[in-house]
Amino acid sequence: MPIIVRDYTWQQNDSQVYISIPLKGTRAGDSSVLCTEHYLKVSFSPFLFEAFLFAPIDDCKSSAKIGNGIILFTLYKQIPSAWDALTSTNLEKEEMQRIREEAIVRVQEKTKEDKKAKAENKRENEKYSLAVMMKIEEEERKRIEDVKEEERRRATEEMEKWKAQQRKEETRKKAEEEKRKSNTNKTMFPTHPKPSVKEHERNCVQNSKTLKEKVLPDVRATACINITFTPRVFPTAVRESRAAEEEEWLQKQAEARRAINLSDKELADLKEEEKNPEWLKDKGNKLFAAGDYLAAVNALNLAIRLNDKIPALYLNRSACHLKLRNLHKAIEDSSKALELLTPPVPDNAAARVKAHVRRGTAFCELELYVEGLLDYEAALKIDPSNQNVKSDAEKIRQIIQSSCPEVE
After folding, report:
1. Which residues of the chain have pLDDT under 50?
2. Per-residue pLDDT at 192
3. What angle (nearest 5°) sits at the alpha carbon of residue 177, between those of residues 172 and 178?
4. Which residues contact 250 (CB under 8 A, 6 or more apart)?
5. Are 259 and 309 a contacting pair, CB within 8 Å?
6. Quick one: 107 exposed, middle or buried, by C-beta within 10 A (0-12, 13-18, 19+)?
């Protein structure tokens, strides 16, 4: 049988009533509150507080806060006036039972209505979100088509100009060749009078002497130059070398550079430079530096469709998503980059630090400070001398230590 609470306190003014009920050493999560116009009930096992109110209240505006070992009610009166007492004392048992049952029925109906309203509101929000996303995607598709059409038109114009220039250049070269041939013919067949036999013999003797006097250079001697390259790619000492992991990393990078994930039809629609993921990555970097983060994401999306094994593409796209506040996508791209940055070798240490820091930043922006701190600590294990990462990790620790959940 529950123990009735008697040591509560209450105060009032013309429009409000304040009731303070001690929790009797129980936790706030174990309390159950029921409030209607004429009835107020608080259960926190094994204690019970029940009040049949002196006058009706507005249960929609009234509120209850639970915390610090106390329950505080703020009740708004329907009719502003001073109450003689908090509860009615002249009610019969049958009347009290009826009020209890009506209160329970009303609360159940209100709960059903609230649940139905929330479900309806959720459906409306989902419809609106879907409509907005479809509109954004349609506008983005149209913008991309316009950009492609403009690029095709520009490329066609440039090709036509180049062809015209080539035709002019060929015409000029033909004219110069014809002029040169004409001058050569004039030189070989001069128009001056034909020399006599004696003059011709003298000229032949002179030409033979000139040819004899000319000394031709010696033929160049052939030689062979031996060049020896070191087989090591990573500058790691032999006693600290992880040759197997390094060779695996190099093999993954080579396979990533050879991978193409688009069909022949899709490749045919792209320009030559657009088929190169490295060119698209550089283009995304330039767009990011210019502040056009959405265009940078589009360039990196195409690069990833061409080759989804290059970790730098996911790492750069995660930075763009951070700028665009697409925090969940930033976490996904950073995680994918870390998945591709295996095995951990000195060559990819800087990239792994960036991936951990960007994923930790996205977690902190979502107020998931514990997960963010784990990523920052992982980055510090890779680069313990990074002062910026140390400072940010300390700030996150202070936020975690100072945060305290508020119960209402």
Report:
1. 189, 262, 264, 267-268, 404-408
2. 53
3. 100
4. 233
5. yes
6. middle
